[in-house]
Here is the input.
Amino acid sequence: MATLRNNPYGAFNFLVSLGNGDETSVIAGFSDVSGLGTEINYSEYRNGNDAVNTVRKVPNTFKQEDVTLKRGLVGSTDLFQWVKEVREGADRRRSVTITLLDEARNPVSAFKLLNAQPKKWVGPTLAAKGGGEVAMEELHLTHEGIVYE
Here is the structure.
């Protein structure tokens, strides 16, 4: 899917599929996606007979960062419903796919979150000052791995 080119892709064209049974259905228009990342932990090790007096770095476990999705409040309760189901004990793991699009809205790469679950939901900050700001909600997802396609 990815194509090598001289200019980097813009970060403003993307789709999010929450994988609720139909992997192709996009059920929410998000304005921000952050936290796509992984971190590898290393152990230090040195043999007593090593000629060089320094430790080697040996990779071991790794961690996945939580992913945060933000969208304007649109009257849909789908995100909160997912949080509520998990909060009440249901196992509602999903494969969440974030697809980057080029300027012509063609898919160029995708990040698939494996076994994603809601960790935190944050409702909008409401203020009566009348500044014309958009009411936003955000969903923090924990997951068990990222597949970069």
Notes: The longest strand covers residues 107-122. The two ends are 7 Å apart (CA to CA).
